[in-house]
Amino acid sequence: MRFVRNNCDANWANTKVLLGARSVGDYAEPMLNRFLNVFSASKPGPLPEPDDKLALAALMVRVAKSDHHYDLAEIKRIDRLLARIYGLGPVEAAKMRALSERIEHAAPDTDRFGHIIRETVSLEARLAALEALWEVVLSDGTSQPEELHVIDAAREAMGLSHADSDAARALAEAQ
């Protein structure tokens, strides 16, 4: 046992020499502080109450995530759709999508977003919203049952028919 202690003491002495006679604490404390700061970083502020724009953006994110494969093609499509629909630049569209990702994660169900859209925008705007949702579904080349389920729930919450959905899908496929 004494041998191990002496060996440790010798290693410690060598370490001090290599560190220029500074203690390990001089190096460990700043690293520990940085590590602790990661976990004590300020939490993001409360989420805004979604309006019709954020509701549509959150629905787009929900549709894209519903198949458990939220890929770059879907993210880019959402950003382009937000830019086109709301006249945003690329950075503003990406920020809106990022905020809508947080809102989508916090929201309990799809109906809430659909009802916001139904209550605040015209029939024409709701049809355009449904078309945008179809564009997101089709952006990765396939439509999964989970995505179709979210589209159908959103369609119903927005007060649109199956025929409206079929027409919106056809328009999205033509894009």
UniProtKB/TrEMBL annotation:
Residues 54-170 form the Co-chaperone DjlA N-terminal domain. Gene3D superfamilies: TerB-like. SUPFAM superfamilies: TerB-like. It holds the Pfam family TerB. This is Co-chaperone DjlA N-terminal domain-containing protein.
